[in-house]
Amino acid sequence: MSIIQQPTLFDIDYLEKLDIQEKYKEIFSPIDWTKALDLFQKDTKVGPSITVNYEAVLRSLMARIDQKIPTQKALIQRLKSDLRLKLSVGFLYSDPIPSEATYSRVMATLATHLSVLERMNQQLLQLIHEELDIFTENMAIDVTSIEARTKPVKTDNPKLPSTETQRSMTTEETLETFPSYASSGVKKNSQGKNYFWFGYKGTLAVSTKSRYILNMHIASAFASDVTLAIPTIRKVAERLKSEKETSYFSLDKGYDAKEIYQECHALGIEPTIPLKRVAKNDGEVDTHYAPTCLLEYSYKYDSYDKRYGALKYTRPENHC
């Protein structure tokens, strides 16, 4: 049971301005649900027919994220009280809203078949690229906290491979070492204060212009930001390599590590990362590591010389 719609792709800013029914029509139309719906088909023709509108259930789970609905129970109540949302996600007027148990079974099935969702996401990203050229954009990589809806428990966290060790490992080997159970995590917020949570940590690679998520990895909250960076950089680089000669990645100062620079340069990527600290100098360089003249005026950046892996600077003629 599904609604046939003409696939269309628009910028996210445009989608946010649309009415709820038009908005979800544009969001859902390019998605091919065939592989996901196959997970809920009956193995045999014997027995009662399927009465649940699984495509609408999957759409409602996506709408729950967009509408910032906290729980499945709240989603069910919203669908029962909001007819426009119910029709927008694909339920017919006569369709009963599935129970919380049905939603839990759907989530459990999806959790055991993540590879199906990943392939769907890759197909969707390819469609978006054909429309908006997202693989030619620069990337931004950062982590976000994901709170678990379970009671916090103490865990014995294993030691994860360092960034230096990860460079000698394959991406698959590295990802296998990352645990995915809920744990306690701490991170400094924008005010410089520690923020504590229990759950997971997601590392996201986002296109800086159109703001599409090109890659995401989920790990336990105790994992450090820099530990999760190399697999994400490699996965994104695979998509960008054939589309753009030089890609620029923006990362915060938590990724200021030698191995991150080495991995990026090995993949033909130019990283933009703030320095964690500026070492004291004797006047030969300024606070941004630009060379200075005898009068300690900073030289002006000119260009980057790929032949020698060096930066070119010009002397400040007005002062020196």
Could you name the key traits of this structure?
about 325 residues; six-stranded mixed beta sheet; 3 domains; two-stranded antiparallel sheet
Task: Describe the structure in your own words.
By secondary structure, the chain is α/β, with parallel strands linked by helices. The protein folds into three domains: 12-116, no CATH class; 134-272, no CATH class; 278-320, no CATH class. The protein is built from twelve helices and eight strands. The strands form two sheets. Strands 1, 2, 3, 4, 5 and 6 form a six-stranded mixed β-sheet that branches. Strands 7-8 form a two-stranded antiparallel sheet. α12 links the parallel β5 and β6 (269-272).
pLDDT averaged residue by residue: 85
Overall 3D geometry?
A: elongated
In DSSP terms, counting alpha (H) and pi (I) runs of 4 or more, how many helices? 12
The amount of helix comes to 25-40%
Class by SSE composition: alpha/beta
What percent strand? Answer: 15-25%
Topology, number of strands: 8
Oligomer state equals single chain
Low-confidence stretches: 1-6
Radius of gyration: 24 Å
Distance between the termini: 76 Å
Largest sheet: 6 strands, mixed
* Domain count: 3
Sequence of secondary-structure elements = HHHHHHHHEHHEEEHEHEEE
Brief overview:
By secondary structure, the protein is α/β, with parallel strands linked by helices.
What's the arrangement of secondary structure elements?
Layout (H helix, E strand, L loop, with lengths): L11 H5 L3 H9 L5 H5 L15 H13 L5 H10 L1 H6 L11 H12 L2 H19 L6 E9 L15 H4 L4 H6 L6 E6 L5 E14 L5 E8 L8 H12 L6 E5 L6 H9 L2 E4 L27 E6 L4 E5 L6
Parallel strand pairs: 1-5, 5-6
Antiparallel strand pairs: 1-3, 2-3, 3-4, 7-8
